[in-house]
Every structure is written in structure tokens, then in C-alpha cells.
Specification:
alpha+beta; 28% strand; 2 helices; 5 strands
């Protein structure tokens, strides 16, 4: 995990350290915490990919991490404003297309 920068803290992923979520049957390939300057709660944004998606898109896990990070940057821009209204730590999981999975 990287240190906080501009109220965002990124998680570092490599092909050896991606997280598998059994409920979604997907691998987490990119994630970041976005915090509010006014309260202690933060939003965790996660990009996930299934093995089926890897095969369908013809990408390696390393390429999925790179693509996931690009999607993550878009998600941070889209959801940054949500942080000020959080009442608790809130995780949100998205796929490569930006569709919310959880």
C-alpha cells in the first residue's frame, strides 16, 4: 500500500499478490482508498476481473492490473464527491467496464 497522497491511498498489486474474492469469483486487480478531509470515513474503490474476462479479453494478469488501474483512476474521479456523505468505511467493487458489482 502506498502512502496517502491528495486524500487517495493506492494498493499495490502484482500477479502474485492479487486478491481472490470467492463470492464474486473474481480477482481484485486495482484498489484505492479515498478519504474525506472532514471525517475519518473513507471509500474503498476496487476493480475486479474474472478468469472468464481475462480469457475473453485475451489479457494477462499483469495487463489486467494495468487496465484495472486505468479504470480505477476514472472511478476515483467519478466517486470522489461521495466521500463527504459517508457514515462508515464503504467498499465498492467494479468490473473493467465500470459496472458496480458490489
Amino acid at each position: 500500500m502506498r502512502p496517502w497522497a491528495d486524500d487517495v491511498r493506492y494498493y499495490e498489486y502484482t500477479p502474485a499478490t492479487i486478491h481472490y474474492d470467492i463470492d464474486l469469483d473474481a480477482f481484485f486487480v486495482a484498489a484505492a482508498d479515498v478519504r474525506s478531509p472532514t471525517h475519518p470515513h473513507y471509500l474503498t474503490l476496487i476493480v475486479a476481473v474474472t478468469a472468464r474476462d481475462l480469457v475473453a479479453h485475451g489479457v494477462t494478469v499483469q495487463e489486467a492490473i494495468t487496465l484495472g488501474h486505468a479504470r480505477l483512476e476514472q472511478l476515483i474521479a467519478q466517486h470522489r464527491g461521495d466521500v463527504s456523505s459517508l457514515q462508515a468505511r464503504t467498499p465498492r467493487v467494479f468490473d473493467f467496464s465500470g459496472m458496480r458489482l458490489r
